[in-house]
Amino acid sequence: MPPSESLSEDSVGLCLGLDSIGPASPHGDRVVYWMHSSHRTIHNPALEAAIVISNRNQLPLDVLFILDPALPDVNLRSFSFLLQGLDDVDRELRSRGIHLSVRRGDTITELLKHLQDASALIMDQGYLRHHRQWYRLLDKELDIPTLQCEGNIVIPVRTASDKEEWSAATFRRKIAAKTLSYLKPVQEQVPLISSRGFWGEGLEWKGHEWHLRWMDMQGSANPSPNLYGGQDAAERILEEFMRKRFDCYHNSRNDPNLRCCSELSPYLHLGQISPVRIAMEVMKAGGPNSEAYLEQLIVRRELSINHVSFNVNYDRYQGLPEWCRKSLDEHSKDAREYIYSFTDLERGRTHDPYWNAAQRQMLSTGIMHNYMRMYWGKKILEWSETPQQAFENALRLNNRYELDGRDANGYTGVAWCFGKHDRPWKERPIFGTVRYMNDRGLERKFDMAAYIQMTLEEKDRIEKLVS
């Protein structure tokens, strides 16, 4: 029996109810996989489950991607990176005899149009507010078998915990005994029926530049000139990280002058690489570097997904723990030596050369070093008229310019700067009992003059490249 004819839920990954999904509707002519969060063909449980279901029902598989310019906080930078990744997806699907359909416009409107002649729907699992809104609308409208797969997480959200967790310590205890059982490869399936050239539904993929012109996002953040989207790029970066930088991860990842981080967060954000794939590669190396990296990849990242899944106000000041808001509000009238407008912050026009360098790095490249990102958020809190305004400004900047913005990690990272997943510290002006960071701490730990110079050289190099 070919592997594509028999597949257990455990071996395909995190697809709820794979074995119990009923037969496809007899009125449709294909199975549709709506790819909206896992933009890849490698280690993608939703794709492989879709092939299983299409084979079971002797129907071709149609992979659908919807380009919706009205998605929250999207811009030229983020969509360019996304579309670059779809070049890889289209090429690899073609090699497996699978059709990629593209539709443009409102997500649910276009999806429902596309499903009029479908027999079954397989889709990714997302965790943000607009994802949940999509699923509620589909529940009301669809009468075909539907399957959802959590392909961008190691442990399913509600398997890990059934509530919002207080901290990494509480979350770590809950998942410690569960993690290994989910770290296993996804078995690649063989489609029994080719779908190449099967329909006139939607558009053919015409390359990322063609589709980007249609999006017409002038005036927003420019595409990153030194980071290219897609699963191929993600695989190369993972290989380079393991070969060149992994050995310094445990001891030196916080140094903004050293490239000891994996630099995979933009690719994880769009599902262009699987966290399970990364974790299995890192586990082969073992040792303290492996332990430190898995703490960030699994415990901290999936704690962020827990936060946005259970906290309806994950992107609002009201979503912070009560102790944080109480302490910050009590100090909201404290005198501030500096107050900067959103425009001043956006352009990096502050008195602090280290903060300006971090902002410059983000504006130029679409990424900011993780440690500097914490300092960056803390200073926005210190330099804003109110903590509420600070929270809003930090989130706007993060979502506009970071390639991994608009993500559970981004929302939770900003909230962390305001006390989320942390504990009360010594009380001080403005911050109350929320953790404080200052420039002297940076100077004690790192060569900050070198960091400033690096960001200036990076900016000059990018400007010359663009011109």
In short:
The protein is built from 21 helices and five strands. The chain is α/β, with parallel strands linked by helices.
Would you mind describing this structure in some detail?
By secondary structure, the chain is of the alpha/beta class. It has 3 domains: 3-151, HUPs (Rossmann fold, 3-Layer(aba) Sandwich), CATH 3.40.50; 154-185 and 224-310, Alpha Horseshoe (Serine Threonine Protein Phosphatase 5, Tetratricopeptide repeat); 317-459, DNA Cyclobutane Dipyrimidine Photolyase, subunit A, domain 3 (Orthogonal Bundle), CATH 1.10.579.10. 49% of the residues lie in helices and 6% in strands. It has 21 helices and 5 strands. It has helices at 9-12, 45-56, 76-95, 107-114, 129-141, 157-160, 168-175, 208-215, 231-245, 249-252, 265-269, 275-285, 287-310, 322-330, 342-346, 353-365, 370-382, 387-401, 408-417, 439-445, 448-466; strands at 30-34, 61-67, 99-104, 118-124, 146-149. The protein has a 5-stranded parallel sheet with strand order 3-2-1-4-5, with helices on both faces. Helix 2 links the parallel strand 1 and strand 2 (61-67). Helix 17 packs antiparallel against helix 18 (387-401). The radius of gyration is 23 Å and the shape is globular. Mean pLDDT is 92; it is low at 1-13.
What structural category do the secondary elements indicate?
A: alpha/beta
Major sheet: 5 strands, parallel
pLDDT under 50 segments (min length 5)?
1-13
Total domain count: 3
CATH topology type of the largest domain: Rossmann fold
Order of helices and strands: HEHEHEHEHEHHHHHHHHHHHHHHHH
Mean pLDDT: 92
What is the tally of helical segments? Answer: 21
- How much beta, percentage-wise? 5-15%
What is the strand arrangement across the widest sheet? 3-2-1-4-5
